[in-house]
Each structure stands twice: as C-alpha cells, then as structure tokens.
Fold this sequence. Notes:
Layout: H1 3-25, H2 31-38, H3 42-65, H4 74-92, H5 97-125, H6 133-159, H7 166-184, H8 186-189, H9 198-208, H10 213-243, H11 250-271, H12 276-300, H13 303-335, H14 339-351, H15 355-364, H16 367-404
Helix pairs in contact: 1-4, 1-5, 1-6, 1-7, 3-5, 3-14, 4-5, 4-7, 5-6, 5-14, 6-11, 6-13, 10-11, 10-12, 10-13, 10-14, 10-16, 11-13, 12-13, 12-16, 13-14, 15-16
Membrane topology: Multi-pass membrane protein
Pfam families: MFS_1 (PF07690)
Transmembrane segments: 37-64, 76-93, 99-118, 130-148, 168-189, 210-230, 250-270, 282-299, 305-328, 340-361, 373-393
Amino acid sequence: MSDRQTSRAxxxxxxxxxxxxLSSSLPTPLYPVYISxxxxxxxxIMAVFGVYAAGVLFAxxxxxxxxxxxxxYTRPLYAGLTCVLLSSLLMMFADNFMxxxxxxxxxxxxxxxxxxxxxxxxxxxxxxxxxxxxALTASASLILGQAIGPLITGEIVHRGFYALKTPYIILFIxxxxxxxxxxxxxxxxxRHCTTVTIERKSAGAQSYRGLCFRDVIVCCMAxxxxxxxxxxxxxxxxxxxxxxxxxxxxxxxxxxxxxxLLVAGISQIVMRKKHHYSSLKIGVVAQLAAVLLALSSVHxxxxxxxxxxxxxxxxxxxxxxxxxxxxxxxxxxxxxxHHLINLLxxxxxxxxxxxxxxxxxxxxxxxxxxLNAYLILCSILSTCIFLSAYFAVRCQNITGRTxxx
Length: 405
C-alpha cells in the first residue's frame, strides 16, 4: 500500500475517533437547558453523566475479551459509528429522562468501541514506522473531540439556533462522513499485519528495551490522576471559581478551560519529539507541580495561582497521554495483548469519577476543608506516581546496561 493510502486511512480513523469523542462532550452545555425545559433535577443530570461513562467502560471491558481478526477491523468500527449515529438521533429528540439516559448510554457504547478498535487499527496501520504516530493520532483526536464539543454547543446555545437539535445534526453529518471514509479505506485498514523488518528492530531496539507490564501499570497510574485532575477542573472549576475564588466572569472561566485543552493539545505535539518515557516523566513532574500549586491557591485564594496550575496541568495531561499511550501501544504490540490499550482508557475513565469524592466532601464540610483534603489526597497520589516512574526508568536503564554487557 502507498504512503498516500496509509495517510488517507489514518485520517479516516482520526475523523471517526474525533466524532466519537465529540459525541461525549457535545451535550455538556445543554444540561442547564434540559433542567429549565423539562425540570430535570441535578441528581438526574449527574446520572446522565455517569451512564455515559458506564457505557464506555462496558464497551472497553467487552472488547478486551473479544478477539476479532485484524482483517475484519472495519466491522467493529462500523458498529461503533452506528452507535454514535443512533445516539445522535436519540439525543436530538430526547424530551424525557429515559430517552436521555438511553441516548447517553448508547453514546458511551459507541465511544468505547471506537476507542478500542481505532487504537488497534492505528497501531496496525503504522506498524512499520519507528514512531509514536499511532499514539499521537489517537490522543490528539481524543482531546480535540472533547475540547471542541462544548465550544460548538455553547455557541449554538448562546445564539439560540435550535439548540437541542443543531449540535446533533452536526454530529450526524460527521459520523456519516467517518463511515464513508472508513469504507473507502477498508482495504488498508483490514490488511494483514506485515512482518516487522530487521531494520525496524535495529532502529527501534533502544525504544523497546526493557518495556514490560510494570511500565503499563505506571502509565495507568499517571493516566488515572491526569484524567481525574482534568475532570476536576472541567466539572468543578466553574462553580469553585465563582464561589471560592470570587471570579465573576463566566467567559473568563470558559476561556481558561479552553486554554487548558489547547495547552494539552500543543504539549502532545511538542512531546512527540521526546522519547516516550521522557514525555511521561516530564508530564508526571508537571502534574505534581500543578497539584501543589492548586493546593497553594486554595490557601491564598489567589486566582492567578489557580490559573497557572490549570495551564500546567494541561501541559501534564498532554505529555502523560502521548507518553503513556506510546508505551502501552509498544507493550501491547510486543506481547500481542491488545486489551492493554483498553485497560489504559478504562483506568482513565475510572479516574473521571474521583472528583465525585470532592462533591461529597463539599456537601458535608466547608469548601476550604474539602478542597484541602481532596488536593492533599491528589498530592499523595501524584508523589507515588512520580516515585513509581522514577524507579521504573531506573530499572529500565539497569536492564538496558545489563543486556548491552
């Protein structure tokens, strides 16, 4: 297959993953609209948020146990895109709680299936390259989809242009385009894995040396806290900025969160040039600094410190994601255990639930006490992850020197 065909297939997979991730964040600005129109309670909206994550986790757990031949990878891709297509129709006409719940669960199923098999397809597609192209493509599509969704819907809601239907019409069109793109590139996506050449083994020997399941555990730990911190800023940030840090401007908070995701995307591009473990280490250090800065901002009630913490966490989010995804992709390819890719994203989505502990603490204690307790917990976790990454790199270096001798 030509490089042009491979690039076209990669773009089709990226668009499909982008569409799946867009579906995950697209309804976020609509939740207040649902509350005002249909009288949904806050607990019902929280249930809608949780059922999406449940759908993703169910799909990832199921696909981890299902073996599909590499020559048939387009089938689960069609299934995932069909779920997103169906969910867009359900959400477009959701006028009661049960349809909304069903629509979000189907969205989660589609996102989970796409997350599993697009990552596997990208690994197979770029298997002859000594690079992290597959990991970068997947992580960039994930972040862009999650970042652009609220911006699209927020602008539509602001302008009052058929707010409950227009976002899902846009999603529907993107999914149809994705299905067409996957169909056109089906021969490339379904081609058999080529035998890794000796030249590639030689060129990539240093990158692969010493990687094992221990490194996957370190990556999962880093992803867990990274996604937990990102979810904390995205879900609790606007409320805390207004009530605790006295930031009255809603636009300023929204722009800060958009900047957070933009920094995360840029850091992926920058850290792509680094060695995968260097990217992970730098991200883990930046994450620890971000948590400590956030803790300091709580004590001083300084919005400027919080803003710096959010930007630093954005950098850490991108660096950890591209580094961890590359390492897990390598281990999965070496061991032929592609379910490890599912494991990484399962842990990440479980991390999204950590901020619920902050909500519970805020219900029973003052905001300052709850924030201090939550951020101290995150600081301890971040320190443990930093030490784990440090010793993992040290063991890898010792193993590399031993094999060399």
